[in-house]
Amino acid sequence: MILTDQEVTYFVTTIKNSSPYDFSEYSEKSLKRRLQKILLDNNMDLIALINKLKTNKEFLEQTVKDITVNTTELFRDPLIWQTLKYRILPKFSENKTINIWHAGCSTGQEVYSMMILLNELDLLDKAKIFASDINTDALEAAKKGLYKYRFNIGYLDNFDKVIKENPFNYDEYNDVPYNKYFKIDKVSDSIIMNDFLKKKPIFRQHDLVKGENLYFAKFDLILCRNVIIYFKYSLQNKVFKLFQDHLYTNGYLVLGMHETMLGDIASRFDKKGQAYRKK
Amino acid sequence: MYKAVVIGGSAGSFQVITRILNSLPKNFPLPILLSLHRLKHVRSGFVEALSIKSGIEVVEPFDKDTIKPGKAYLAPSNYHMYIELNKKIALSTEEPVNHSRPSIDLTFETAAQAYRDKIVGIILSGANRDGAYGLKKLKQLGGLAIVQDPNECQVKTMTEASLKMTQVDHIFTTQQIINFLQNLK
Fold first, then answer.
1. Nearest residue in chain A measured CA to CA from B74
2. CA nearest A61: which of A69, A72, A53?
């Protein structure tokens, strides 16, 4: 089933008129693809879907969740985590507090990765961890800190690369046991985060499209990885402006491995790799 | 007359793709879109390995990069790579498709929608069926479908699956693929 652009627009308009959600500045390809998948999974055509969206609030919420779901993993892209470990987080070691916002945290793996790293750097106690996502199902999963084991064996490789190894000195090896941070249960096929990590973050639903700072705080570090790839340029810029407004000077914004900041707003930051320092 | 080449491959395709890239002239007139599966533990270093002898520049693109001729765009590890209608790259971390991310099917399908009858699609050696559906879509939308000769493939699953689904335009050896590309204007 191939949807036309007009059909996608019709869908976006329906959602916009019947709910607080606005996908009009989402990238077309991913949005179209997800919409196609929703139609297929529900065995519906677009007209039937639109009618159900208009009359059934629960169905609408579920559809929004299906549109906004994203996958991530523990220490996804170890290079970025090594940058955080050796270059960025040490700059905050003299701070009294470190405010960190995971904007678009999805199912929470990035949040746990950050807390593990902070703990290894003896910075966890002074850190305040804020984590938000538009998708309340993803947030619930994030709070649970429970992940499939078999599907995610790569988590352990990533953990080793970031926590145990030192890319600048191969002789150095910190044999940090996994169970310091999570338990692996092969019988139930699960990785479960330890309680001291789970109770730390302040999880909140938040829609970046609305451009609010829901925490009423300023941040030393904002991570927003593999979120803006789903946004059009115009919305990306709004989001960058939001981050710029709510970062401290010399605070950092970290984007995904293959995301980049374009346009005038980029001149307000010093860029090194995926890390942008607010001037 | 063509505006882009899209190539998909998996197990056994690395040497083939290296040979192809090495044989291209610096002024190759089209962009090449590469969607290749890689082993989980060889996530980085792949683009460097492909670049060493390549005639044209090989990059792992950023989201929203504009596709330019004479450059090869390798789908980054652990991302799907779509081609938008305005000839820009769109990356995504959506669920793997057929256990694959990048998904060859998705790159092929979206590239075909963007370039219609102005694209050449090539499926190389591989151990699963990813790419077969994408090549079918490409052919349906008027693109030119090429499959590496299964007899020459280290692993035939991908090419045979593609041949089963699509009446392709050519079954080529690596050398024939190279000759074909070198003659594109």
1. A258
2. A53
Residue A82 has pLDDT above 80, yes or no: yes
Q: Per-residue pLDDT for B145 more than 90?
A: yes
Q: Does domain B4-182 have CATH number 3.40.1670.10?
A: no
What would the two tokens of residue A273 be? 């790799």
Nearest to B84 among A29, A154, A228 (CB): A29
What are A12-57's pLDDT values in tens digits? 999 999 999 999 999 988 899 999 999 999 999 999 999 999 999 9
| Packing angle of the helix pair A28-42, A5-18 (nearest 10 deg) | 80
Q: Could you tell me which residues are beta bridge partners of residue B100?
A: B97
Q: What are the E-state strand segments in A83-224?
A: 98-103, 127-133, 146-148, 182-185, 190-193, 202-205, 219-224
What is the percent of chain B where pLDDT is above 90? 85
Would you say B87 and B95 are in contact if contact means Cβ atoms under 8 Å apart?
Answer: no
Last residue of a domain, one of A68, A99, A114: A68
Residue with tokens 């059934």: A56
Question: Across the interface, which of A27, A154, A257 has its CB nearest the CB of B90?
Answer: A27
Delimit the domains of chain B by residue range.
4-182
pTM: 0.93
Q: pLDDT for A97-151, tens place per residue?
A: 999 999 999 999 999 999 999 999 999 999 999 999 999 999 999 999 999 998 8
State the pLDDT at residue B44. Answer: 67
- Among A230, A225, A268, A251, smallest CA distance to A79 is for A225
C-alpha Rg value of chain A to the nearest Å = 20
Residue A211 structural domain: 78-146+195-278
Q: Do A228 and B94 touch (CB under 8 A)?
A: no
Helix (H, G, I), strand (E, B) or coil at B89: strand
Long-range contact pairs involving A179-188 (C-beta distance under 8 Å, separation at least 24): A181/A112, A181/A116, A181/A119, A182/A112, A182/A145, A184/A149, A185/A149, A186/A149
Same structural domain, A84 and A53:
no
Residues in A closer than 8 angstroms to B61, CB to CB, are 258
Residue B42 banded pLDDT, cuts 50, 70, 90: low
pLDDT for res A29: 87
Grouping H, G, I as helix, E, B as strand and the rest as coil, residue A218 is coil
Among the three residues A18, A41, A68, which one is the final residue of a domain in this structure? A68
The verdict on a CB contact (< 8 Å) between A30 and B90 is: yes
CB of A76 less than 8 A from some CB of B: yes
Residues A64 and A202 reside in one and the same domain:
no
The CATH number that applies at residue A202 is 3.40.50.150
